[in-house]
Amino acid sequence: MTQDVEDCNAVRLVGRVSAAPAAKELPSGDVVWLFRLVVRRPAGHVSRQSVDVLDCSVWTPRLQRTMRSWREGDQVEVEGAVRRRFYRAGQATASRVEVEVSRGRLRRRADAA
Asked: Pfam family of this protein, just one (predicted)?
């Protein structure tokens, strides 16, 4: 293993919002907005699964204002990092892996039904 390679935790995803983003207030008083992003796998992949559904979190107020208007079916592009967040669930400690979004933009509105 070479020592000259720097670690990198950077993600860029383009996909469809599965449901409108929702705010969640944490016991600390912080507010995080959460949504799920459905991303198609490239053609020719070996799995029978054709999409990945990824949990995303938005912590910064400026980006929260941007993504509040996103709705189910919108195609969006996000950048961020993979994070493992720990929290209390009853008497136990639980965790979840999610994409912590640092940049995001609407690429295409969902067709109106």
From this structure: SSB
Distance, CA of 87 to CA of 39 (rounded, Å): 26
Asked whether residue 3 is assigned to any structural domain, the reply reads: no
Q: What is the pTM assigned to this prediction?
A: 0.84
What burial class does residue 93 get, using C-beta atoms within 10 Å of its C-beta: 0-12 exposed, 13-18 middle, 19+ buried?
exposed
Tell me the CATH number at 86: 2.40.50.140
**Cα 45 off chain centre by:** 22
Query: What averages of pLDDT result for each successive group of 10 residues across the chain (113 residues)?
Result: 80 97 92 96 83 96 94 98 89 93 96 68
Q: Tell me if 74 sits within 8 A of 108, measured CB to CB.
A: yes
Domain that holds residue 92: 11-108
